[in-house]
Design brief:
With 425 residues, the chain is mainly beta. 6% of the residues lie in helices and 49% in strands.
């Protein structure tokens, strides 16, 4: 049986702080004791524990009992700096609030709360006073056999759960809540990971709810994000419900999404990339989805213009460019059994590159009801795009796009405005 390291037994390692007592050293000592013994459980009883970053090691579980809350101190000058990545760029970063590096069989479980206390970090981003990227709430890199289960995650300084180059990852029954206006507080972002299962989670955040990533053209060592299962999740608010990219240079493939609910997300299913990113998004199967009051249910945008270099001509130019290793591709996307109510901007937006169309996208048994009073909005982040309101599907540069039994109500103008489309009832 694994050893149990009750954090209360390390109380002598705490020191006074403005929040009461600082438990950082207590957690660090308990984690090192567990590591020296070959692993164990860091047991956190009910109570409030102000702390800074906690590093976990192999064969270690951080277990938060009901009523326990980790509350993160926001004095950034006391946070350690580690080597990591942010948005595909290798750099020094503030150590994640819960961190593991090159570990195996590492877990965060329980019925307690992890509160990132992100307000000071968000304000620092808004005022441009941060020298380094903010800490992720849970950031595991180069790990195997990762489990995050049951906990409630609040007020993340940046992305909430970020597995980077990990294998065999499960995120189960987790509740995530970040304010809608908090900057870049994505929910769950597997990045260059394989064999990932995200199940039974509720995610309400200030950016994308679940995002699959695999680096950019500037990432030093690319790995695909592959073999991903997302099921029985609820996405609330956020810029996108389930998102792929825009970091997708290593490729994203073999993704299934089923039995999920989207409420008030700006977009439902969203794929975003641009020239020079390279990489292939392929073999996506999405089924049994319900979307309510989303701006645009389906977005496939290969002219994504946010971030560094986003305004360069090669990003927005609609003329054909030579196809090379920097040309991204989107293909083999199959969507079925979807009900959408109260969509506002457009029923769908598919815009491939002229030299590399979106290929083999099928929508089967899809019902979309537009909001007749919906406000205009931009389905995709791309230059020269004007706001839409109550539009149908807008499709450009697509090959073998098939619409089977797709019904759109309250649409203004054409239900499907596009090229190379097959429509069957």
């Amino acid at each position: 049986m694994e050893g149990i390291y009750n954090i209360k037994e390390y109380r002598e390692d705490t020191v006074p702080c403005r929040e009461g007592r600082d438990w950082t050293d207590a957690f660090r000592r308990a984690a090192k004791d567990a590591d020296a013994a070959g692993g164990g459980m860091l047991y956190v009883p009910a109570g409030r524990y102000p702390t800074r970053s906690i590093q976990l090691y192999s064969n270690t579980t951080l277990y938060l009992n009901a009523g326990a809350e980790l509350y993160y101190l926001d004095d950034k000058e006391n946070y350690e700096i580690v080597q990591g990545e942010f948005e595909g760029i290798a750099s020094d970063v503030y150590m994640p609030c819960i961190f593991a590096d090159c570990a195996h069989h590492v877990a965060v479980k329980g019925d307690g709360i992890i509160n990132g206390n992100g307000l000071a970090w968000w304000n620092a981003v808004r005022t441009g006073t941060l020298a380094l990227p903010r800490p992720y709430l849970i950031g595991f890199q180069y790990c195997e056999h990762v489990r995050i289960e049951g906990v409630t995650l609040l007020n993340a300084p940046a992305w909430t759960v970020h597995p980077l180059y990990c294998r065999d990852v499960e995120v189960i029954g987790v509740s995530i809540k970040n304010p809608y206006d908090s900057p870049n507080t994505d929910g769950i972002n597997p990045d260059g990971c394989s064999n990932v299962r995200i199940l039974n989670c509720q995610i309400d955040v200030g950016d994308d709810c679940i995002t699959l990533k695999s680096g950019t053209e500037k990432t030093p060592r690319l790995r695909p994000c592959e073999n991903i299962t997302i099921a029985n999740c609820t996405m609330i608010h956020g810029h996108g419900g389930i998102v792929i990219g825009s970091e997708m240079s290593g490729g994203i493939r073999n993704v299934t999404v089923s039995n999920c609910v989207f409420q008030n997300t700006d977009r439902g299913i969203r794929v975003k990339t641009r020239r020079r990113r390279g990489g292939i998004v392929e073999n996506l199967h999405l089924s049994n989805l319900i979307m309510d009051r989303v701006m645009c249910p389906f977005v496939f945008n290969m002219y994504y213009n946010c971030g560094a270099d986003g305004q360069e001509k090669y990003v927005w130019d609609k003329e054909a460019y030579p196809v090379d290793e920097g040309t991204p591709a989107i293909r083999e996307v199959h969507i079925s059994n979807v009900t959408v109510t109260g969509a506002t901007a457009a029923a769908g937006f598919l815009y491939g590159l002229k030299e590399q169309p979106v290929r083999n996208v099928t929508l089967t048994d899809v019902s979309i009801t537009m909001d007749p009073d919906g406000k205009p909005g931009l389905p995709a982040m791309m230059s020269q795009l004007k706001p839409m309101s109550g539009a149908g599907f807008f499709v450009r540069n697509a090959q073998e796009a098939v619409f089977r039994n797709v019904r759109i109500r309250n649409v203004r103008g054409a239900e499907i405005d596009g090229d190379n489309i097959s429509i069957t009832s």
